[in-house]
Every structure is written in C-alpha cells, then in structure tokens.
C-alpha cells in the first residue's frame, strides 16, 4: 500500500466544525471550536490514522 502525506491543521478542523454546526443551527463559541478540533486531532492520533510530527 502506498503511503501519502496528509497535513492536519486544527485551525482547519475548527473552521470545518464552525461551518457544519452553523448549518445545523448551532452557534459555537471560539473556545468550544478549539476544544472540538483538539479532541478530533487526538481521536485521529489514537486510531492511528495520523502520526504527530513536531514542527522544525
């Protein structure tokens, strides 16, 4: 199987959640979006979908 590089940005995750939640009638606070993005990132790590790399 071929390995590909995917960059996961928690800011992009937060924007995605904001868009999707507002479509559904929710107005989340900025800190709530940050928490959701962090939780999503941690979930992806736990499921071994992504590997965390440190910025150099």
If you had to describe this structure to a student in words, what would you say it looks like?
This protein has 56 residues and is mainly alpha-helical. The chain has one domain. 55% of the residues lie in helices and 0% in strands. It has two helices and no strands. Helix 1 (10-23) crosses helix 2. The longest helix is centred in the C-terminal third of the chain and has 17 residues, at 30-46.
What is the number of helical segments per DSSP (H or I, 4+ residues)? 2
Order of helices and strands: HH
Overall SS class: mainly alpha
How would a crystallographer describe the biggest sheet? none
* Helix content percent band: 55-70%
The total beta strand count reads 0
Query: Segments where pLDDT lies below 50 for 5+ residues?
Result: none
Total of domains = 1
Shape: elongated
- Beta-strand share of residues: under 5%
First-last Cα distance: 28 Å
Q: What is the residue-averaged pLDDT?
A: 91
Short description:
With 56 residues, the protein is mainly alpha-helical. Helix content is 55%, strand content 0%. The chain has one domain.
Q: Can you give keywords for this protein?
A:
56 residues; mainly alpha; elongated; YozD
Topology:
Blueprint: H1 10-23, H2 30-46
